[in-house]
Amino acid sequence: MGSTAVPGLVSKPILDVAVGLAPKATEEAVVASLESAGYEFRGDKGDDGGLLFILTDAPNHRLAHLHAVRYSDNRWQRYVAFRDLLRAQPNVRRAYAELKRSLAARHRLDRGSYTDAKAAFIEQAVKDQEQ
User: Fold this and answer.
1) Are strands 51-58 and 40-44 parallel, antiparallel or unpaired?
2) What are phi and psi of 72, to 5 degrees?
3) CA–CA dist 129, 48 (Å, integer)
4) How far apart are alpha carbons 80 and 20 in whole angstroms?
5) How far apart, in whole angstroms, are the C-alpha atoms of residue 30 and residue 41?
6) Which of 36, 81, 82, 113 has the highest Cβ tally under 10 A?
7) pLDDT tens sequence across 114-125
């Protein structure tokens, strides 16, 4: 669902994956299953990312961020809508790439600020597409 899912878009070498959970899936079962597969549970980020898991292959070297959210809920819909928008609209893809480059330079050592700073662009782009 992240930049690596959009051909031609600049991205960090970390996969961002969304997993759609079945209605009856429990947090405990999801955490147990993914932890047994090597993912580290980082908590429930609610509407900002669902159940967050990190996959690493060495200290401070991430391979993947996995966001487990209810299939078809609002968060799932926004992930898919933004990915599809970036794939279909070169102008939005270019603007997002420029934003990512400038934020990466400004927040080189602060992943949280980098991510937070992209949120307004993402929300506005999805909102504009829905109109």
Assistant:
1) antiparallel
2) 75, 5
3) 20
4) 11
5) 10
6) 82
7) 888 898 899 899
Dump pLDDT digits (tens) for 28-76.
999 999 999 999 999 998 887 899 999 999 998 999 999 999 998 888 9
Q: Which domains does the chain have, with CATH numbers?
A: 3-130 (3.30.460.10)
């970036």: which residue's tokens? 86
| DSSP letter string, 29-90 | HHHHHHHHTTPEEEEE-GGGTSEEEEEEEETTEEEEEEEEEETTSHHHHHHHHHHHHHHH-H
> What are the residues whose beta carbons fall under 8 Å from the beta carbon of 85, sequence distance 6 or more?
92, 125, 126, 129
Coil vs helix vs strand at 9: coil
pTM flag (> 0.90): no
Q: How far apart are CA 17 and CA 108, in angstroms?
A: 22
Within a 10 A sphere around the Cβ of 110, how many other Cβ atoms? 12
